[in-house]
Amino acid sequence: MDKYISISYAQLALATLFIIINVCLSLGLRLGLTQSLVIASLRMVVQLLLVGYVLQWVFNLRNPLLVLLVAIAMTTIASLSSVNRTRRRFSSIYWNNFICLLSASFLVTGLTVNGIIRVEPWYDPQYLIPLLGMVLGNALTGTSLALDKFMEDLSSKREQIEALLTLGATRWEAAHETLKEALRTGMIPTINSMMVMGLVSLPGMMTGQILAGASPTDAVRYQILIIFTQASGTALATIGVLILAFFAVFNRQHQLSGNLISNS
User: Fold this and answer.
1) Which residue range forms the structural domain that includes residue 11?
2) CB burial class (10 A; 0-12, 13-18, 19+) of residue 167?
3) Which of 72, 144, 188, 252 is the most buried (most CB within 10 A)?
4) What is the average pLDDT across 89-102?
């Protein structure tokens, strides 16, 4: 295999030409995206450079406590981002998302690192942090879509749900269809990406490994493992978030708690 080719900062600066093209198109066509493109590009560059230096420091130290702190920080940011994409909230929404993302991502990542790849030591940041990041990224999308769908449907179908409750339906009977639709919505991006993977798109991890000099067959095996891990983590986190949201907005008397549903 060809050796790994490092990218210098000068070469990285040349890559900004691609964004400049987008900015020029926005200005020429008056799309109104210029400011968003510039801000998004600057934020992305600063964030990734900072993350790169932090991860380099963590990789060099190889301290299990430090690795866990980084993992918890990643989960916290993911849970906040998931909730911020949801237009309707309830009081415990942030805590619920954090618990579900933490439990699901740590479980599937831990099983992957220790049970399948069998990394030694288990906290090796070279494996643990990138795998956790990929699981969290997909779970974040799934939970935010599912939670937003569930809360919006509760609001739009409130009269129908309350009528069912008034007629003697339990909270589960009144809301289970809404929960099912929300779960489907949360899982759609993961399923769609799996359907076209390898035919329409080459996944980022697989491409990165090939560029780093890994065998394409090895990269494919890793990618399949990651996709299954991501799908499991997304499903577990999404189900958990919806269940906790269900218990948060429906009380034990099988009533829909109106004060828990509000516009963000």
Assistant:
1) 1-61
2) exposed
3) 144
4) 92
